[in-house]
Structures are given as C-alpha cells and as structure tokens.
Amino acid sequence: MKVEIWSDVMCPFCYIGKRHFEQAIEKLPFKNEIEVDWKSFQLNPEYHNANNETVYDYLSRSKGMPVDQAKQMTKQVADMAANAGLSIDFDTNIPANTFNAHRLIHLAAKHGLQDLAEEKLFEAHFVKSKNIGETDVLVDLAVEIGLNKDEAVAVLNSDEFAEAVRYDIYESQNLGIRGVPYFVMDRKYGISGAQPVQAFTDALTQSFTEWKAAQPKTTITSLNKNNDAVCDENGCEI
C-alpha cells in the first residue's frame, strides 16, 4: 500500500511527524508492505534568507509576533521534538528556501535514496544548523547519502526536477492540502500534522486492511490429468 507524504524540510512538525510515522510503522506486522513516497511542499516558496535572518526574526516578521513570543513557541516545538527522540536547536537554526532541497530529494528518489535524503535534510537543517538553501551544503549531503557528486552538482546547477517539485505542489493543491505534514494513504484517507504514534498506527491499520481486502485474488487452474509424482504434507505419491 502506498503512503504519500507531503512535507517541507523547513517544517519542524514534518520532522516530528516523520518520526512518529516511523515509530508507528515499526509496530505493524505488515510494515514491509507499506511503500512511502515523499512529496514536495513549500511553506514559503518566495522566501530567501538574504540578511542572515534568525528563525526568531523570521517568525516574528512572518507571523507578526514579538521575538520573545517566537522563542516561547519554538521552545514548545523543541520539547515536542525531544519527546519524539529528536534534538532541534532553534537558536542556531537557519531559515532557507527549500526548492533546491526538494529537487535533491527527487534526484535521490531516482536512485532509491529518497527517504534517506529526507532524513538527512531534516537533520542538517534542524540538528546541525546547516543552510540547506546553499548548493555546497546540498552537494555535501548528496555525497553523504551515496549520490554521485558530479550528478548532484549538475542537477543543482540546472533546473532538473524543478517541474517534478512544482507538480507535487500542484497535486497538493488539487487534493486540498493546505498545511504539512500531510499523509495520504492509498489515495483514500488523509491524516494531517505530527499526530501521536497511535493515531498513525490506527490510520495505517484501517487503510491497509481495506487495501488488502481489495487486492485481486490469484487462482490457478490445474492442467494435471492425474495427481501422481506429488509431494505434500502426507509424503510423496509414487
């Protein structure tokens, strides 16, 4: 069963939601039958950090709140992340435009490394305080996850996968997705936000049960004219 996840790597709730979703998956007996497809989403597609803006300044300006309020808000998010086993450092976090990061994720998907790229971008942005809007940072991450450096440089210095990113965003609009993370299960059910692990477990179980029941049953018509030379649980017929 396919689960599509619309996410932005500058979104802390997307990072937390990813971890909760993974923890839910690990509890399920059918975990190997779940296929995850990460989809691009940009919370602020026009943003460019030209003045070394801090995350507190960014939130203060974009949300119209005092810096102290922005710090309190991010502290609550950091505490929520810690409960999920994540360490987010907002004091050194660097806001960035994520369009090229999403293009890198599409390149990684081409090589079967999409989930690892998503994870490493979250880690770079929220834990290691890297500027994921910079090409050099993205190239280093590409090499770290096993991508060819020359290919990564070529992609990031071109517009390759730009349309793929835009199409993901277009799809999200058609599906009525206005915020992330957003998890779509079998294009039938959706769940938004960094929900608790149990909420993901319940949603996945319901979706998978219905998906499994809808799968066509395979039947084989036997062409044997007799049952000779067959071994089964009762032994072998000679």
Features:
four-stranded mixed beta sheet, about 50% helix
Summarize the structure.
By secondary structure, the protein is an alpha+beta fold. It has a single domain, classed as Glutaredoxin, CATH 3.40.30. The protein has helices at residues 12-26, 55-63, 67-83, 99-110, 114-127, 135-144, 149-156, 162-174, 197-214, and strands at 2-7, 35-40, 182-185, 189-192, 231-232, 235-236.
Overview of the structural elements:
The protein has 238 residues and is an alpha+beta fold. The chain has one domain: Glutaredoxin (3-Layer(aba) Sandwich). It contains 9 helices and 6 strands; from the N terminus they run E-H-E-H-H-H-H-H-H-H-E-E-H-E-E. It has a 4-stranded mixed β-sheet with strand order 2-1-3-4, sandwiched between helices. It is elongated.
Would you tell me the overall average pLDDT? Answer: 94
- CATH architecture group name: 3-Layer(aba) Sandwich
Measured by DSSP, the beta-strand proportion falls in 5-15%
The CATH superfamily is Glutaredoxin
Q: Structural class given helices, strands, pairing?
A: alpha+beta
- Give me the Rg, rounded: 22 Å
What share of the residues lie within helices? Answer: 40-55%
- Major beta sheet, strand line-up: 2-1-3-4
**Helix-strand pattern:** EHEHHHHHHHEEHEE
Strand tally:
6
Number of helices: 9
**Spans of at least 5 consecutive residues with low confidence:** none
The backbone outline, from C-alpha atoms, is: elongated
> Structurally, how many domains make up the residues?
1
The biggest beta sheet reads:
4 strands, mixed
